[in-house]
Amino acid sequence: MAKVLQFKKPTPAQKHKGKTLCKSGFHSWQLLKEPVFDSRQGRLVTVFQCKRCGARKVRGISRESD
């Protein structure tokens, strides 16, 4: 017997769940990777990812002068 598929449209609340805060700039950033060396920038970088929408940002760690 074949599988029965539901052709129900998702409600607007299900469709946009968790995206309204991110669209307003209020992301929920999580550390994605430990700091790694980026050869193009020549410094350590840390990658963050929003746990709601999946957007990524890369932050560089600058060297402190002695």
- Radius of gyration over alpha carbons? 19 Å
Strand content: 35-45%
How would you state the average pLDDT, rounded?
80
Number of helices: 2
First and last CA, distance: 73 Å
Structural class: mainly beta
Report the helical percentage. 10-25%
Strand order of the largest sheet: 1-2-3
Number of extended strands? 3
SSE ordering: HHEEE
Shape by Cα distribution:
elongated
Biggest sheet features: 3 strands, antiparallel
Protein described:
The structure is a single chain. The protein is elongated and about 60 Å long. The chain contains 2 helices and 3 strands. With 66 residues, it is mainly beta. A 3-stranded antiparallel β-sheet has the order 1-2-3, with no helix packed on it. The chain has a domain at 27-61. It has helices at residues 12-15, 20-23; strands at 29-38, 43-50, 56-61.
